[in-house]
Each structure stands twice: as C-alpha cells, then as structure tokens.
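A reminder from the course coordinator: this example appears on the midterm review sheet, so study it carefully.

Given structure:
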C-alpha cells in the first residue's frame, strides 16, 4: 500500500495510526518512506507492506494507492498495475482518472467529523475496511492516543474513522486486493520501531551518557531520540554550533571519562575529519554515527544512498586504527551501536556506525528476545604518580586514565609525543608510537564481526554480497529466486573485514555479485583490495532510492543468463 500526499497533509499521521492497528490485528508489517526536501507542498509517499511472514524490504508493486495530490500518478504510475486500487478525489486527481480509481470524498468526511484535520483518520478507516479489520480496534487505539486532548477530540476522530470505514465497506468484494491472513506466529512481545529508535536503544544499552551534534538529516533523529530520554538515562545532550565543535566536545567528554558519541550526515562528517584524526592521535574513544544521504554537497538531503563508505574509511589525515559498522536490521542496529561503543572503549579509537535514510526511517518489528545487552565499560584505570598516558605495552594499548581519578597527570597532545604525552620530534619515538597505535588493528581484525550467510555458500556457484541496509532486499530476493546456485553474504561490519571473508567468498570458482547503493562500487573495491576477490557483477544504484525486491530479482535472473 502507498499513501501519497504533499508535505503538511499528514501522510505520516496515516502511517502512525495504521501500523499499530495492523500489528495488533496479527499482521506482519514493514514501512518505509520517501519525501522531498521541503516543509510544504511537493509529493511524498509512505509504503506499508502487510505480509504473512516478516519482511524487511521495499517493493515496487502497488496494490492499493491512496492519493491526496494530482502528482501521485505522475510520480508513481510506473509502479501501478491493472488491478491496483486507487482511492482519490476525482476533482483533484486530474486527467489520469481511469477504471481503477474510486472517488473518495475524504474532505467531506473530515468536514462532517469536525474539520479538515480529520481527513487522515477517514483515510485510515477506508483502508481498514478494505483490509477487513474490525473498526473497533482502530476506535480503541484512537481513544488511547487522544484521551489527553479531551472527549470532544476523541469523538471527532472516531466519527472520521467511521465515515471512512463505512465508505470502504461499500466497495464490492471483487475490487478489493487480496491481503494475507493474520500471522499465527506473531508474538505479543514483538516491538515495532524504526531504525533511528534501534540505534538510539543500542546507544543507551551501551551506556552512552554524552551526545553532542549539530542537526543534519537524516542523522538528527538519533540526537532527538537520546535527548527525549536524557533525564531517564543520565545523558548530557549538547547541540553544538557546528560539526567541528560537536566532535571536539565529544572528545573532550571522552577525555573526562564519558561514553560519548556524535551523529551527523556525510556533509557534516566532512567537517569532523580533523577531529577524527585527533581521536586517532590522542587515542581517545568516540562513536560517530553517519546517516548517509546522496551527495556531493547538499545533494538530495532527504533521500538515501550508501555513498560514504570511502569517506568513513579514509576520513582524517594520517594513518590510525578505526572500525566501521553498517547494520541492516533493527537487531543489527541495536547490536552494532553497542559493539561500536565497546570497540571504541577497548581500543581507544574512533568507531563509525554507517546507516542511511532508508534504514533510519523504515519501520518493522523485532522480538524482545532478539535484543541482546552486550558488556560495554570504559577501560579506565586509577592513575598513580608515575602514570604515563601513552605507555608502551605488549598489546599496544596504554592504560587509560582520566583527570581527577588518581594522583597522576593525564597529559594528551595532538602533536607526536612520548609515553608521558610530551611533544617530541624524535624519529625513533615517532616510529614506536605509530607502531603502537596501529598494532590494535591486528586485534580488531581478529575480532571483526562475521557476516550473515544466507543459503549454502559451499554449494552455491554465485554468491551475492551486500552490506548495511540491503540485507532485507537480499534475503527476500534470494528467497523468491529459490535457486540453490545462489547464496548470500551480508556484512554488518565493513571494516575491518571479517577474517573468514577470503575463505567464505574465495573457495572454489564462485562468481561474486555485489549489491550497493552507490555509483563507484565502494564495497566491491574494498573487498578486492583486502582479499583479491573481484566482483563478477556489480549491481549499483545511485538515484536516491532504495533497491526494490523486483529490481534485485531481475538483476540476479540476468546473472544466470549472462
């Protein structure tokens, strides 16, 4: 189902009402959105999938379209099919009206219910009737949501839903799309959330107690999620004047012992690169979340892309250790954020979590028992009089002290320094310090998160590789393809690569296909550089849209014929 409308018409309101009702009715749901970079006007849309089994992917096919503007047909006609059911007001839909369309007077329903603001609730009523979901479930939810606004507001909302529902019931049965029956295995303890919330939950679980950022979509949501829960979890929240100040404040907090993070998008992270390099030199942990969107420059600020992998890999001048995670599911998002904090604290390095607009805004469900709390703690020692912040050790990790905890002086310096943090220009000391800082890469490689394997790569002739938000589309495309010649491998940590990568992908004469949302095959290049394994085929997309299941299925079918 697709709900289309201009910014300000309340498409998100429709989604926020429908999703919990659908879930409580026993359906699996997945939702994602695309929207223009404007406060009012334009044409935005939200997709809701109602499925018989858990899904985490975007599909192109539209079975039901509720259109609030004439732009709907212009933008979405390529996704419609002959049996698509289109609800729209005839006078606003324009010249594209045809037999698939049903004149739906949402404006009149809203007026009868109490005002134009209630048109979205009438739309929800129409959809629930078409899906065969009892109105009572929606009424109960409306009472729960609006009880604080008074009985009159509750009554208006219920009236609007009833009018829409009665209209939907009048639709002949033969015109209604077929939707799956409620899922018998759907559990009551499943949670519904978007990717932003999952990353925020992961940060809280890790013990994050300081976040400083300058707002930049789509990364801002993590900042606001933590800010809304700051009192409950003891989080200091600082909105900086720019991204340079943000990462430096984060490093200052970390120097004082906080578990600190910053969040931004690629354009904001550009400004943080000197801070990244500073973190590498002073061996101070920091977690950086990058919500990817298309560049260069402002690009498409509200769309999605996986174009910042190279930026994350090489950000900051000089050479120093880092780790990069790229989750693809709610569970991976919660897990990756905890792993990021753990790695940053353990190895005293900057760690990046790469997401994108699609993953951050997509809504799906996760069972409570899929959420695991990982041990994360600052490796901080009480300092003595002879404390050396950069002392040489067998594993290259110096004991980390913080000011005020012990008698020692915790001296850090962005210039090259000796064990005590005193500036030096000794070539020998420089080499020793470089070796010490880079030594932790060996442990990071050994402990790198292993990828998720889909199917049997030993039997497969073609292995399809994806990273980050493309996990759901890879899983569903391979399931639909149902071809034992294919297997899938998904990376939720993209640096360092898992130690079994060469063995997993290089065994036998296998064809490697890499899926990624960028134009210059950034992960495929990384894979080749680190393992010598070259991709046989690269499936790329840099339009600002996510891959659809249909696209990937078609591309993989081409591989078998190529």
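Designed residues:
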């Amino acid at each position: 189902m697709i709900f289309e409308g201009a910014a300000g018409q309340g498409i998100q309101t429709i989604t926020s009402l429908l999703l919990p009702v659908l879930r409580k009715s026993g359906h699996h749901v997945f939702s994602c959105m695309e929207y223009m970079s404007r406060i009012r006007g334009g044409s935005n849309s939200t997709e809701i999938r109602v499925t018989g089994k858990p899904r985490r992917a975007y599909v192109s096919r539209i079975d039901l379209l509720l259109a609030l503007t004439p732009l709907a047909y212009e933008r979405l006609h390529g996704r419609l099919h002959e049996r698509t059911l289109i609800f729209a007001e005839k006078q606003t839909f324009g010249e594209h009206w045809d037999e698939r369309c049903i004149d739906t007077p949402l404006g009149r329903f809203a007026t009868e219910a109490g005002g134009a603001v209630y048109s979205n609730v009438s739309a929800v009523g129409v959809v629930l009737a078409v899906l065969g979901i009892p109105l009572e479930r929606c009424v109960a939810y409306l009472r729960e949501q609006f009880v604080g606004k008074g009985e009159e507001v509750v009554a208006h909302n219920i009236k609007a839903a009833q009018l829409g529902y009665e209209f939907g019931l009048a639709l002949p049965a033969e015109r209604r799309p077929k939707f799956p029956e409620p899922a018998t295995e759907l559990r009551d303890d499943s949670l519904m959330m978007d990717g932003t919330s999952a990353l925020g939950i992961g940060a809280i679980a890790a013990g994050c107690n300081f976040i400083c950022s300058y707002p930049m979509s789509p990364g801002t949501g993590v900042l606001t999620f933590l800010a809304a829960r700051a009192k409950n979890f003891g989080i200091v929240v600082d909105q900086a004047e720019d991204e340079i100040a943000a990462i430096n404040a984060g490093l200052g907090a970390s120097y004082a012992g906080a578990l600190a993070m910053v969040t931004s998008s690629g354009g904001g992270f550009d400004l943080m690169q000197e801070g990244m390099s500073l973190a590498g030199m002073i061996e101070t942990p920091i977690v950086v979340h990058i919500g990817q969107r298309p560049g260069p420059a402002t690009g498409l600020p509200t769309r999605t892309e996986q174009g910042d992998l190279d930026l994350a890999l090489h950000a900051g001048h000089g050479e120093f250790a880092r780790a990069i995670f790229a989750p693809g599911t709610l569970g991976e998002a919660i897990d990756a954020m905890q792993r990021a904090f753990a790695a940053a604290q353990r190895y005293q390095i900057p760690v990046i979590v790469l997401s994108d607009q699609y993953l951050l805004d997509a809504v799906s469900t996760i069972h409570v028992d899929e959420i695991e709390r990982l041990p994360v703690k600052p490796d901080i020692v009480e300092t003595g009089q002879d404390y050396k912040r950069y002392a040489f050790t067998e594993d290259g990790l110096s004991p980390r002290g913080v000011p005020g905890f012990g008698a020692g002086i915790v001296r850090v310096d962005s210039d090259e320094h000796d064990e005590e943090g005193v500036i030096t220009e000794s070539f020998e000391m420089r080499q020793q310090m470089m070796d010490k800082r880079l030594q932790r890469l060996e442990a990071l490689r050994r402990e790198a998160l292993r990828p998720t394997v889909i199917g049997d790569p030993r039997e497969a002739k073609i292995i399809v590789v994806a990273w980050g938000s493309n996990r759901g589309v890879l899983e569903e495309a391979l399931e639909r393809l149902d071809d034992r010649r294919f297997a899938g491998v998904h990376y939720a940590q993209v640096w360092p690569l898992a130690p079994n990568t060469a063995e997993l992908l290089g065994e036998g004469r296998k064809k490697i296909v890499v899926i990624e949302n960028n134009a210059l095959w950034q992960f495929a290049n990384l894979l080749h550089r680190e393992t010598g394994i070259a991709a046989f085929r690269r499936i790329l997309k840099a339009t600002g849209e996510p891959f659809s299941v249909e696209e990937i299925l078609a591309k993989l079918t081409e591989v078998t014929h190529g």
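The chain has four domains: 2-175, 192-370, 380-447, 452-561. Residues 122 and 160 are 5 Å apart (CA to CA).
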